[in-house]
Each structure stands twice: as structure tokens, then as C-alpha cells.
UniProtKB/TrEMBL annotation:
The keyword Signal applies. This is Thioredoxin domain-containing protein. GO terms for molecular function: protein-disulfide reductase activity. Gene3D superfamilies: Glutaredoxin. Residues 9-136 form the Thioredoxin domain. It comes from Pisolithus tinctorius Marx 270. Pfam families: Thioredoxin.
Amino acid sequence: MLPSSLICLLLTLPALVSAAIFPPNSKVKMLDPKGFKRAMRSNRTAVVAFVAPWCGHCQRMAPEYSKAAGSLSPLVPFYAVDCDVDTNKALCAQQEVQGFPTIKVFPRGGQLPAQKYEAGERTENNLVRWATRSVPNKVKVFKETNDVDEWLGKTSDLPRVILLNKDKKFPFLWQVLANNYYKKIAFGHRSDADEVFAESLGFVADGKSKVAVYPAGSQVPILYEGGNKFESLSKFFRSIVDGTADFLQESVRPPVKDEL
């Protein structure tokens, strides 16, 4: 009878072989069919490489693919599926994988049609450029203050967030977040280098970028005071969607009586 340690090794061998084509500490996450379904249920733009560990093209691509994954982490997740694993073969057939590697971007999980990589050599720069261009742009850009008021009225059924900064263009991070929370939170951008618009909202002009938050049905902004990285903003926006944000709790808290 085989030792239990050897049995465990044999059971995990397919996963080890799959991961072996990617460098140590790679940001590429291997998916099985269940993991693929979870990824497709998300609004997030995701890149998936369908590979085989014996494939020479896959082995040559893996370092560049891993570099691209690192460059775009955590904004755009990069995944891989080992089509040599028996439990993955039906998934690879469903995705019409006919050669290796086959790389696809899913612009909004499974909600939009996938796009196959056909952008030349599989280099880090090409993969990053292709992936970033595949993220749907759902940010409303305001050139005039009146545009903001009109937009707030049209989107009053949703929470709304507006990025105020000195740049004429909004950062890629903001575009990613707008896609991730599509139909849950409306996103806007206002270039406000002189901070006149920020001051009109009652915010202090301090030279920093700001996020104005408008609860659903409200025209009164609240200043977001958390971190400006992906994780912090995502946590805050999740709290808006699930109703646990502090400012939402304040709005439903009963008034304190000042008399017996």
C-alpha cells in the first residue's frame, strides 16, 4: 500500500505541474471550473490564459504573462487554466480552446463577450496594453458644473461618487472601480485644479484629490476620508452597496431626545 504522503503528492501533482510553468510568487492564479465560475460572476475585467504545461509556447509566455499580472495587480486579475487536467477539459472545450496558449480577456466577467488575444507577441507591454484597453469605461466626465447637477438628477436611484483632481484625465484605477461597481454605484470625474468646485461643495482646498459621495436620492455630498488605494476604495464602495457604510448608518440612526 502506498504511504499516505505519496498519495497526497500524487493527488496534488497536476496542480504542481500547472503552477510550475509560472515563476515563483507569480500573481497568476490557477483556476478550476468552480474558480472560473466565481471569476465570471464578478463585474471585474479578468484575463485568462488556457495553457498546457508541456507546451513550449506556454513556457516561453509564462514569464511575460506573470510580469503583466504583477503590473496590473490588483486592478486586473490574471488567471490560468491547465487544459491538461482532466477536470478542466470540459471548460477548455467550452471556451473553444484549439491551441496553446489561448489568452482571453473577459471585460466584465461573464456579462460581456470574451475577446481573444491577437495583439502580436505575448510580451508584458503588449499584454498590459491590451488588458487595460479592454476595461469598459463607465466614468462620466464633467466639463461644467451644470453637467454635474444634471447627472446627479438622472442617477439619483444609485449612490454616486465623483473624483475631483487636478488632472484632465481620471486614473485607470477609477475606470476599473467604475466597471467593478457598474449598475451599483455611478462614477464621475471632474477636473478641479483650482479646487473651485471642491470649495463649492463645502470641502477645504488643500491641494489633494477628493472623492465626493452622494447617497442614493441625495444631492448633498459627503467627503470620503479613507485611503486612495484599490483595496481601501473597494472596501468603502462595498460598504455602500451592502448598506454598512458609516454615513448610511448615521442617516438611519434615530434622533437623540434632549428631554425626558
